[in-house]
Design goal:
Radius of gyration: 33 Å
Number of helices: 18
Number of strands: 20
Structural class: alpha/beta
Largest sheet: 6 strands, mixed
Strand content: 15-25%
C-alpha cells in the first residue's frame, strides 16, 4: 500500500479535487487520499455517451455519501459538443472534462486537481504515440497546470489489490472492452502479446515517457532562448523543431507532425516553403525566417520627388547600385523575398530607372537618397567609417576589422584591430572603440550608445560591450569562427541583466569581401615559402 500512499503525502491536509469516474483507478485514488488525510472533493462528469452513464453517476454519488466526501456531478452531451465544435469525440471529452474539473476546483478553492492515470495508461499512451509517428514520446505529463497525476509509476495490479484489501467494489466501463477503440485494442490484444515476449514492456514504455519528457524540456528551454537575431539555419534539428512548435503554438496554429518537420527543414536549408495548416492558416518560411502572418512592406517615409512614380515591379526594372546595375528581380531574389510576395514590394522609379525599393531596410539606387533629400541611414553611414578603419587595419597587416561607437548619431569612439602591431591578441577593434567612447563621454556606461563593427563580435568583445551596458550592436559580416551573436553561439541567449538591441548584416557584403581579400593576400604572401618547403629538390 505504501507504493500508493507515498506519492499522495504532499496532499495531506490540503483540499484537492479528484476526478472519479467510478473505475478502479479513480475509486482507489479517492480512498487513498482519505487515508493520508487530504480534504477530498470528488468530481464526476457524465459524458452522456452510454446508456448506463447515468447509473455510473448515481453510483459515484452513493459511494461519496458513504465515505462522507463532497461530490460534484454534472452531465454534458459530449457528442453534441464535438459535432458543434468540429472536435473528435476523444478530444471533446477531454476538453469538457478538464473544464468541469477546473470549475469545481475554483469553487472549492482546491490547491490541485488529481487524476488516477497509472503506469498502464502511460505505456498505452506512449505506444499510441509511437504508432502515430509522433516526434516526441513524452506520454502523459505528471503535472500540467493545476492537474497532478501522482500514480503514473503505479501498476494497475497494485491498485486492484488495494481495492480488494479495502473490500471496495468499482464500476467497469463497457467501452474498455470494445477493441474498436485504439486504446482498448492495445490493452486487450497488443500489449498482452508484447508482454509475453517482453515482460518488462510496461516499465520500459513508462521509462521512455519519462526520459523523453526530460529531453524535450531541456531542448525546449534551448529553443525558448533563441533571440530575434539568432541564425535559425545554424540550429540543431531538435532545437529548431521545438522552436517552430513554440512559434506555431504561440500564434494559435494547429499543425501536424509532418508539417512541423517540413517547416524546420526549410528553415535549416534557407529555402522558401508555403504551407496551409489546419483551419486554412497560411505560413511561410524563406531566407531562414518563419512568417506566421503575410509579409508587408513599408511605404516611403519621405516626400517623393517630382517625376518619381510609386508602383510595383515590372519585368524590365533595373537599379543602379555602387557595384553596378542589377535587375530588380535578382535583387529581390537575393533579399529572400518569396516569389508570390515580390509583386507587393513598393518601388519608386524615375526615367533613370528604379530609385528606391521598399524592403527592410530599403534599398536606394546610387545617389537617389541625396536626390530625395531623405535622411541617411545612420548605421549604414557609421558602418562606412568602420569599413574605412578596417581597410586601414588590412594595410597594416592586421585582421581587417573596424569599429565605431555612436552617441546621438555622432561618432564618439573609433578603433581597429592592432593585435599584431602590439603583440597583444586582445587589441580588438571593438575594445578600442569602447574605451575611446567611455573617455569621450566621461562615463563607463554606454547605455545610450551603439557599437557598429564590421565583423560579428567575438565572446571577449561582446562581454566588454555588455559590461559597458552598450545600448545596441550593429555588425556587418557574420563571424562563423568566433561569432558570439549566433555565428558560433548566441551569448545573449543567456540572461545577463542587460540585453542590447542587435542588427546584423549591415553592408555585410563589403565587410565580407574585405576580409576575404585580406586573407587571400596573406595566403599569397606565404605561398612561395610554402612551395619551397614542399619542394624536395
Amino acid at each position: 500500500m505504501l507504493s500508493l500512499t507515498s506519492p499522495l503525502l504532499p496532499y495531506a491536509a490540503q483540499t484537492v479535487i479528484v476526478g472519479v469516474s467510478g473505475g478502479a483507478d479513480s475509486v482507489a485514488l479517492l480512498l487513498a487520499l482519505r487515508l493520508v488525510g487530504a480534504r477530498v472533493v470528488a468530481a464526476h462528469l457524465d459524458h452522456a455517451l452510454r446508456p448506463e452513464s447515468a447509473e455510473d453517476a448515481r453510483w459515484v454519488q452513493e459511494l461519496c455519501t458513504e465515505l462522507g466526501v463532497p461530490c460534484e456531478v454534472a452531465r454534458v452531451d459530449v457528442g453534441a459538443v464535438a459535432a458543434r465544435r468540429g472536435w473528435n469525440l476523444e478530444d471533446a471529452a477531454r476538453r469538457v472534462r478538464y473544464d468541469f474539473l477546473s470549475r469545481v476546483a475554483k469553487k472549492a478553492g482546491a490547491s490541485a486537481i488529481l487524476t488516477a492515470h497509472t503506469r498502464r495508461d502511460q505505456a498505452e499512451t506512449v505506444l499510441m504515440a509511437l504508432l502515430r509517428g509522433e516526434a516526441v514520446l513524452h506520454g502523459i505529463p505528471a503535472v500540467r497546470g493545476r492537474v497532478r497525476r501522482p500514480w503514473l509509476a503505479v501498476a494497475r495490479a497494485d491498485i486492484e489489490a488495494f481495492l480488494v484489501a479495502q473490500n471496495q467494489s468499482w464500476r467497469e466501463d463497457p467501452s474498455n472492452a470494445n477493441t474498436a477503440f485504439t486504446r482498448a485494442w492495445l490493452r486487450l490484444e497488443v500489449l498482452p502479446v508484447l508482454t509475453a515476449r517482453f515482460p518488462g514492456i510496461e516499465l520500459a514504455l513508462a521509462r521512455i515517457a519519462r526520459l523523453s519528457a526530460e529531453d524535450d524540456m531541456a531542448l525546449s528551454e534551448l529553443a525558448a532562448r533563441l533571440t530575434l537575431h539568432a541564425s535559425l539555419p545554424s540550429q540543431t534539428p531538435a532545437v529548431l523543431r521545438r522552436w517552430v512548435r513554440q512559434e506555431l503554438v504561440g500564434a494559435g496554429f494547429s499543425f501536424h507532425a509532418d508539417q512541423l518537420e517540413a517547416l524546420a527543414a526549410a528553415l535549416r536549408q534557407s529555402v522558401t516553403l508555403h504551407l496551409t495548416l489546419p483551419g486554412a492558416r497560411q505560413i511561410t518560411t524563406t531566407g531562414g525566417k518563419l512568417y506566421t502572418v503575410p509579409q508587408t512592406w513599408p511605404p516611403p517615409d519621405f516626400v517623393i520627388p517630382d517625376g518619381w512614380i510609386l508602383r510595383t515591379r515590372r519585368p524590365a526594372d533595373r537599379i543602379r547600385l555602387s557595384a553596378g546595375t542589377r535587375k530588380l528581380s535578382d535583387l529581390l531574389t537575393d533579399a529572400k523575398v518569396p516569389r508570390e510576395s515580390r509583386d507587393a514590394v513598393p518601388v519608386l522609379v524615375s526615367v533613370a530607372g528604379v530609385q528606391w525599393v521598399g524592403l527592410r531596410p530599403p534599398v536606394w539606387a546610387e545617389g537617389a537618397r541625396a536626390a530625395a533629400g531623405a535622411p541617411e541611414d545612420v548605421h549604414h553611414a557609421a558602418m562606412g567609417e568602420a569599413l574605412a578603419l578596417a581597410h586601414a587595419a588590412a594595410e597594416a597587416g592586421e585582421v581587417p576589422v573596424g569599429a565605431v561607437v555612436l552617441h546621438g548619431g555622432e561618432v564618439v569612439g573609433r578603433g581597429r584591430n592592432t593585435s599584431r602591431q602590439a603583440g597583444d591578441m586582445t587589441r580588438h577593434a571593438e575594445l578600442a572603440a569602447l574605451r575611446e567612447a567611455a573617455a569621450t563621454l566621461g562615463t563607463p556606461y554606454l547605455t545610450e550608445c551603439t557599437l557598429v563593427v564590421t565583423l560579428e563580435p567575438c565572446p571577449m568583445c561582446l562581454g566588454a560591450a555588455l559590461e559597458a551596458r552598450i545600448g545596441g550592436i550593429v555588425y556587418g559580416a557574420a563571424n562563423p569562427k568566433a561569432g558570439a551573436l549566433g555565428g558560433v553561439m548566441d551569448v545573449l541567449a543567456a540572461h545577463w541583466g542587460h540585453s542590447p538591441t542587435v542588427r546584423g548584416g549591415v553592408r555585410a557584403a563589403e565587410a565580407a569581401r574585405l576580409l576575404k581579400d585580406a586573407f587571400r593576400q596573406v595566403r599569397q604572401a606565404k605561398l612561395p615559402t610554402q612551395t619551397h618547403e614542399r619542394d624536395p629538390v
